[in-house]
Amino acid sequence: MRVRRTWMSCTQRNELWARWRAGESLTDIGHALARGSGRIYTIVAAEGGVAPAPRRRSRLAVTMAERIDALRAWAKGRCVSAD
């Protein structure tokens, strides 16, 4: 499993892949994002030149609203699973 480093924000990564799909060179993308072309190459090469699929949260994951409700119930001393 590779380690994911946060070299850019999500917005910058989206812009990188949009520019890559448009056919811009690594140097041009690097200048636009104020990053070195070597760093751009590292990101593109790590994905094999194909933009990764958007991340999606599992349908089984607990939402923030559910977490808040559980914490409120816990603070009141109620059993969370009983609700």
Describe the structure.
This protein is mainly α and 83 residues long. The chain has one domain. It is built from 4 helices and no strands. It has helices spanning 10-21, 26-33, 37-46, 64-75. The protein is elongated and about 60 Å long. 5% of the residues are buried. The model has no long low-confidence stretch (mean pLDDT 85).
Q: Quick check: average pLDDT?
A: 85
If helices are DSSP runs of H or I spanning 4 or more residues, what is the number of helices? 4
Strand-pairing-aware structural class: mainly alpha
Beta content: under 5%
Q: What separation lies between the terminal Cα atoms?
A: 39 Å
Low-confidence stretches: none
- State the share of residues found in helices, binned by percent: 40-55%
Give me the count of strands.
Answer: 0
Work out the count of structural domains. 1
- Regarding quaternary structure, what we see is single chain
Q: What is the overall silhouette?
A: elongated
Q: Main beta sheet: strand number and arrangement?
A: none
Order of helices and strands: HHHH
Radius of gyration: 20 Å
